[in-house]
Amino acid sequence: MRRAVIVLGSTAAGLAALLSFKTHSVAAADSAPSTPAPSAGTSQPAASGAASSSPSAAAHKKTGTTSPAATRTVTGTTANTQYGPMQVQVTLAGTKITKVTVLQRTNDGSESDQIDANAIPKLTSETLAAQSAHVDAVSGASYTSSGYIQSLQSALDQASA
């Protein structure tokens, strides 16, 4: 009987400790967006003022590319899936993914169109939220998801090179 009381008390204490646990990565993630926000805010007026104000935008950017502005577009390689090609184009402002455009999508009839119409918006919103190609595949759209992620990773690799 005494052992049962000790086990139950320990379990309750452990559960309370587990539920009150807060990770440090959440605090780091909360502070990370607040640091880039001022630089994103300073680059937005330059972009909205004139698209040709690339020298000032490029000065704020650490890694330069051949693109004249801080905003650049990179096209991923075409990923061949069982149901056709998938190819995406990524628009980046500095290192932030601001837009993903699907240039080629699977083309195996009306069912493929329905799957893509459902999966591509989900994959795009997850990409913008994750800011990487580390996104979950959409259930029921394995080939579309795989091709999208492969092409997206290719574009991001090209952007970082």
Notes on the structure:
The protein is of the alpha+beta class and 161 residues long. It has a domain at 68-160: Sufe protein. Chain: A. It has six helices and four strands; from the N terminus they run ααααββββαα. The protein has helices spanning 2-19, 24-34, 36-49, 54-60, 110-130, 142-160, and strands at 71-75, 79-81, 84-93, 96-104. Strands 1, 2, 3 and 4 form a four-stranded antiparallel sheet that branches. β2 and β3 form a beta hairpin. α3 (36-49) runs antiparallel to α4. It is elongated and about 70 Å long. 25% of the residues are buried. Residues 24-68 have low confidence and may be disordered.
Identify the overall geometry. Answer: elongated
Largest sheet: 4 strands, antiparallel
Q: What is the succession of H and E elements?
A: HHHHEEEEHH
CATH class of the domain at 68-160: Alpha Beta
Mean of pLDDT: 74
How much strand content do the residues show?
15-25%
What is the CA-CA span between the terminal residues?
66 Å
CATH architecture identity of the domain at 68-160: Alpha-Beta Complex
- Per DSSP, the total helix count is 6
| Coarse structural class | alpha+beta
Estimated radius of gyration: 22 Å
Query: What is the third-level CATH name, the topology of the domain at 68-160?
Result: Sufe protein. Chain: A
Low-confidence stretches: 24-68
